[in-house]
Amino acid sequence: MNHLKINQFKCFVDADININQLTVMAGANGNGKSTTIQALLYFRRTIEHCGEWINREYQLNKVNGLNVQLNGAYCLALGNSSFVLNRNAEVNEIVLGLFNEQEEVTVTYEVDNRDAKLHLTPKSLTKTDAANFPIFKQEFYYLNAERIGPRVSQQLQFFDYPNAGWQGETTAQLLGLENGYYKVENERKFGDTQSNYLIDQVNHWLDFIMKGVKIRVETSPNTLTAQILIENQFTVYDPTLSTNLGFGISYILPIIATGLTAKKDCYFVVENPEAHLHPSAQSRIGRFLAMVASSGVNVIIETHSDHLVNGIQIGVAEKKIKNDGVTINYFSHTEKNIQPDVQPISITDKGELSDWPSGFFDQTQIDFAELFNLRKG
């Protein structure tokens, strides 16, 4: 188990957040889930900007005096330095990093709150010799909550490694890798299907999540564009533009494409994978992401969907992923605390949650109880 260190960053005074093979961030709005994701993304940006490129990985062995921007990379929009320093901070420093029982790497940033800046300045580094976390890999996959909706086509772009972009803007290009003949690892194939070509596996998983949906990708090198055509039960053998259908397919495609192509031992961070999806599809995307994590990708999810969590529980009960590889971090707040409470919840090998704290996906029961009382009256 790794832990994300967050010290004096936004709403956190000092917190250590559990990061497992499959990590779920859940809880009410405004209780620190997004801040946790932002802390990880900003730490990653620091490594990219201030580290060295050695043997196809980033190495961060010293601070080099470069400033790290607060806005732009990974869709971050943190404002200026006065917004990111915790209001209760006793010193003008922020610490971010990762650690476990054997290794640690943390960066201390100097914050000038007298003259608000659009950056932070790393001033010191704490690192064990053997520190080797997934965040140092070249491949780092992130999908923002505000993903690109349906488009007639997408522009072809250069990427250092195949990915769907931060908002799904290169999904069509990713799906068209090697004209659809890019091969998916066997452990990520759907069921007992035979073909391991990317486009075939995308369609198998799509059909599992949204019955009857298939896609086709057409790439035009001359116009530097790629186009996704979609078929469902109403357009059989006559696929249509994605703009003629809802947002759900466009929002889920970058998740499936990334999940099937992401390199092992790397991070895949996805915000609100349930967006624009029917509850049944939310549950099944949870099962899909559990499968991706079990194949060796480090998956981190921010979600408001109890259906998605149910899908992960089913994945555990079906032995698609080991229960000790899953952690649900429940973010809440009590009146006297100066920072959010973060309670780790585990899952048994039968798919049962170890705890069900107040406020954790209990609104259905609350509403049913209120309706029961109203009907009695």
Can you give keywords for this protein?
six-stranded antiparallel beta sheet; six-stranded mixed beta sheet; Rossmann fold; 377 residues; 2 domains; 8 helices; alpha+beta
Structural description of this entry:
The protein has 377 residues and is of the alpha+beta class. The protein folds into two domains: 1-139 and 266-377, Rossmann fold; 143-261, no CATH class. 25% of the residues lie in helices and 26% in strands. It contains eight helices and 18 strands. The strands form four sheets. A six-stranded antiparallel sheet has the order 2-1-7-8-9-6, with helices on one face. The chain has a six-stranded mixed sheet with strand order 10-15-16-3-17-18, sandwiched between helices. Strands 11, 12, 13 and 14 form a four-stranded antiparallel sheet that branches. A hairpin with a 4-residue loop joins strand 12 and strand 13 (225-231). Helix 4 packs across helix 5 (247-261), helix 5 packs parallel to helix 6 (279-294) and helix 6 crosses helix 7. The chain is globular, with a radius of gyration of 21 Å. It starts with a strand and ends with a helix.
Fold blueprint:
Blueprint: E1 2-9, E2 12-19, E3 22-27, H1 33-50, E4 52-54, E5 57-59, E6 68-69, H2 81-84, E7 93-99, E8 104-110, E9 119-127, E10 140-143, E11 154-155, H3 171-175, H4 198-209, E12 214-220, E13 225-231, E14 240-241, H5 247-261, E15 267-271, H6 279-294, E16 298-302, H7 306-317, E17 326-332, E18 341-345, H8 363-376
Parallel strand pairs: 3-16, 3-17, 10-15, 15-16
Antiparallel strand pairs: 1-2, 1-7, 4-5, 6-9, 7-8, 8-9, 11-13, 12-13, 13-14, 17-18
Helix pairs in contact: 4-5, 5-6, 6-7
